[in-house]
Amino acid sequence: MYLLLRHIKFHLIMVFGKSSSRCKNNDNNIVGQGVLQGSSSDAPIFSLNSEISLCAYNKSVIGASFCHPVNGSIITDHSIQYVDDTSQFLNNLGAMNHIPPEQELNHPSLLQLATKNSQKWADLMWMSGGNLNLGKCFFYAFQPSINYKSNTICYYKIPSDSGISITNPATGADVVLQSLNPDDSCHTLGVILSPDGQGKTHLKITLNKAKEFYGKFMNSSVSQKAKWAAISTVLEPAIIYPLVNSYFSMENIKPIDSILSQMKCVALGLNRHFPRVILHGPLLLGGLGIPSSLEKNAKDRLNYFLFNTRCPSTISLKFDISIVYTQIEIGTFEQFFSTSYHEYGHLVFLSYCVQIRQEMEPQGIIV
Question: β-strand 178-180 against 174-176: which pairing, if any?
Fold first, then answer.
């Protein structure tokens, strides 16, 4: 399959016809390099290379460990990857599992381990035919702390003079990675977030993207059928899909939902101020039955949660740990998802599971 993907020939088809010249993925004769970006063969080739690199990385480095508060079981997570964006994890518990008890763990040694991990990943990328863009790499080094007065978790940057330095395997030059504060939001894995869960930057960018789409959409001369196909299959998913992984309340997303609802009205030939209660209302009650972006976002979040809790994976184990901690916080034998968020929500720290319960309660859904 790999050889087949490497030898596929591509032609460019335009209004003038098919190009006589062609290109293929291994025209440069360098194994692992030269894939045609944007082609249908690009994703499977990249997956083949990445899977090998990720497996080698997970077996040879120290990751972040998470402990179950009841049964004491420990899971370890090393990295996650989305296309060519990769995030790596390391914490004190993960390091202590690999360091002899007589050696005291301190923050400089934690950064030294992170440096070894990062160098290992850079070398693996180079061996598989790629090269990290070290100018786009950054890291967070922070310590969480509970603020009991405000019932919130705060994150404090760990000061360090050494930082993380990586030797570029291609040039041999040393590059010092940028150290960011826990509240600095950066583009990672398709979402612009920060370790403290703050997503205001991503929300602002998403709102601006919706406004940009709205301007182009309203001035377009294509047919209503084409507009509806565009909003339902491309524009709305592109705007709300990244919001699934974020801690955004319905109030936060309402401005975005308002723009998308106006676009839906225009695509249906309705006035953009058409009553939303009719546009989004159920058919049985005389509505058009078109779900709002708020409802779709809540549905997608719930589907993501249910899918990952039912499939054994690192994500499902993290969800299980998060739920158990929340259960301990409310201090009752009644299952958290069966309790009233209005009654118990002030006792728990915000998490993905807590937000799902907050969104499900008005709908009367019990997991």
Answer: unpaired
194 phi, psi to nearest 5 deg: -130, 160
Q: What are the pLDDT digits (tens) for 148-174?
A: 887 778 889 888 777 899 999 988 999
- Tell which wins on pLDDT, 182 or 367: 182
Give the C-alpha separation, 137 to 188, whole Å: 10
* pLDDT tens digits, 293-336: 888 888 888 888 889 888 888 889 999 999 999 999 988 888 88
User: What is the SS3 string spanning the chain?
Assistant: CHHHHHHCEECCEECCEECCCCEECCCCCCCCCCCCCCCCCHHHHHHHHHHHHHHHHHHHCCCEEEECCCCCCEEEECEEEECCEEEECCCHHHHHCCCCCCCCCCHHHHHHHHHHHHHHHHHHHHHCCCCCCHHHCEEECEEEEEECCCCEEEEEECCCCCCCEEECCCCCCEEECEEECCCCCEEECCEEECCCCCCHHHHHHHHHHHHHHHHHHHCCCCCHHHHHHHHHHHHHHHHHHHHHHCCCCHHHHHHHHHHHHHHHHHHCCCCCCCCHHHHCCCHHHCCCCCCCHHHHHHHHHHHHHHHHHHCCCHHHHHHHHHHHHHHHHHCCCCCHHHCCHHHHHHHCCCCHHHHHHHHHHHHCCCC
Q: Quick one: pLDDT at residue 65? A: 93
**Is pTM beyond 0.70 here?**
yes
- Cβ-contact 180, 193 below 8 angstroms: no
Backbone angles phi, psi at 62, to 5 degrees: -95, 130
What is the distance, to the nearest Å, from the Cα of residue 352 to the centroid of all Cα atoms in its chain?
Answer: 13
